[in-house]
Amino acid sequence: MSSTAGISQSHQFRKLLLSEELEFICEAHNGLSAKIVQEAGFRGIWASGLSISAQFGVRDNNEASWTQILENLEFMSDATTIPILLDGDTGYGNFNNMQRLVRKLEQRRIAAVCIEDKLFPKTNSFIKGNAQPMADMQEFCGKIKAGKDAQTDPNFSIIARVEAFICGWGLAEALRRAEAYHQAGADGILIHSALSVPDEILSFKQEWGNRCPVVIVPTKYYATPTDVFRQHGFSIVIWANHMLRTAVAAMQKTARTLKEDEHLLSIEDKVAPVSEIFRLQNAAELQEAEDRYLPKGAEDTCAIVLAASRGKELGELTEQLPKTMVNIQGTPILSHIVDAYNAVGIKDIVVVRGYKKEAVNLPNLTYVDNDDFADTGELDSLLKALRSRKGPAQSTVISYGDVLFNKYIPQSLCQETDDCVIFVDSNWQEQSSYARLGGFTECTIPNSRRAFNAKIYLKQLGDKLPKESIHGVWMGFLKVSPSAATFITGIIVEMLAKPTNRKAGIPQLLQELLKRQYPIRVLYTAGHWLDINSIEDVVQAGNF
User: Fold this and answer.
1) What fold, for 9-243?
2) What is the architecture, at CATH level 2, of domain 298-541?
3) Chain centroid to CA 437
4) Which residues are catalytic?
């Protein structure tokens, strides 16, 4: 467990600031870079104003609004557990803006803010620094006081950045301002220099002593050995913009290479694999959450679509292609079925084809051919499909190639844990072709308010049920678990061994299961499906 576990980010930063050892924090400019900095082992992050502006594609002149900066900080904070020190420019306004800024930073678990004594809108210190005016010292002191008065977290820190060296005012002015800011309540002083040698910051530290912690940014005097900073008693060293600069250089090189080579071979082994991006994004955590919170079953379910028959009832429409390929609004029936399955995550789909099988050729499907379709029935097709299954055992949704349906039907089937589940339409009298399926049903209870969330099972199924016993019509959908699939495969083999069952369909299979007292769970619906069994149904399907 981390030594900082349970310690707030502001408390962590305060410990870094007051540490007797030289501490280091590194620049980050978004959630991804912040996470990388933390994973590298840094104990703090510098949210650089230059870098954040640059990744937005704007200048470091307060062109990115403070609310845009806050939004970016929120992603950084969410991605990490170590403290973030915001490069807060001039505080984005006067004392009033400073107070609001502090409150908003605390809300986002930002540990500290550094503000510089220049005028709003600021200009980057390395752009004509000597020509830049400084803020009124007393006004800046008031801004520090206002920020300290606004904080509610006692560990929240305000670092005062002294720009006297940058603006050409020298050591005396730097010391004068630093002392005033210290007295106003600043928790630390950041002394900045644009020289390539550390002379200015060392002379300041020698005169300053240990009145309060001093933070430095050795971007320009990078050749200075780190031990020099350690020996002079500085508190924190900020590596201020190197994550962004590294990323820019890498992106420029990659872009040039891609433009010149027009292929990926030159760069693929030089860039992070996509799997690493997924890891940094916590993709595994999302998968765990999906397993915990999303409806179960769809992604681990396959589908079998029985589509071997011609569909003579459609006449000329099926002379050259099977019913499943008849167009509805310019798209084959089978495409509509596949889209409904895909919409709930079922991508593994087996289609049993027979009549004019060469016409059934949609992509990304597995095909099983029943060349005996003219002399056999649904059970023969289903057996061929079940025997074709490879790989890990999956739940299976079985349906017909001429039945359109709302996506909630397979989704609901997938969510049920019973071994054998069917859908029954209680509004069966509104279905024009319900008798075709041969599936009038009597269930343990009819569809009513009592049926909501109740466990309902099939009692009878057939063409000749007394009207008063009919609770609905079977819709042609059957979901079986892996164990149930194995069981019914054996049943189908037994049934097909009898010549009288050669053209048997799934209703006969369900009847056989009932004879053996095998429980068949029932889900009710009212409509939301269409069995295409006539020219009128084709016309109606256009409005489904």
Assistant:
1) TIM Barrel (3.20.20)
2) Alpha-Beta Complex (3.90)
3) 42
4) 60
Query: Is residue 16 within 8 Å of 228, Cβ to Cβ?
Result: no
Contact 406, 435 (CB under 8 A): no
The per-residue pLDDT for range 52-88, each reduced to its tens digit, is 999 999 998 989 999 999 999 999 999 999 999 999 9
What is the mean pLDDT of the segment spanning 392-418? 91
Burial of 124 (0-12, 13-18, 19+ CB in 10 A): middle
**CA within 13 Å, CB half, 246:** 12
Q: What is the mean pLDDT of residues 194-223?
A: 97
Residue 6, pLDDT score: 80
User: Tokens at residue 357, please?
Assistant: 């099988």
Pairing assessment for the beta strands 348-353 and 440-443 based on DSSP bridges: unpaired
Q: Let me know: does 412 contact 510? Beta carbons within 8 Å.
A: no
Q: How far is CA 84 from CA 23, 112, 163, 245, in A?
A: 14, 7, 22, 19
- What is the residue whose two structure tokens read 């609901």? 412
Structure tokens at 527: 């409509």
Q: Print burial letters for 164-203: b (CB count within 10 Å at least 16), e (below 16).
A: bbbbebeeebbbebbebbbebbbbbbbbbbbeeebebbbb
Give the tokens for residue 57.
């594609």
Domain edges within the chain: 9-243, 251-293, 298-541
Residue closest to 37 by CA, chosen among 26, 24, 51, 49: 26
**Mapping DSSP to helix (H, G, I), strand (E, B) and coil, where does residue 517 land?**
coil
Closest listed residue to residue 124, CA positions, set 64, 62, 178? 62
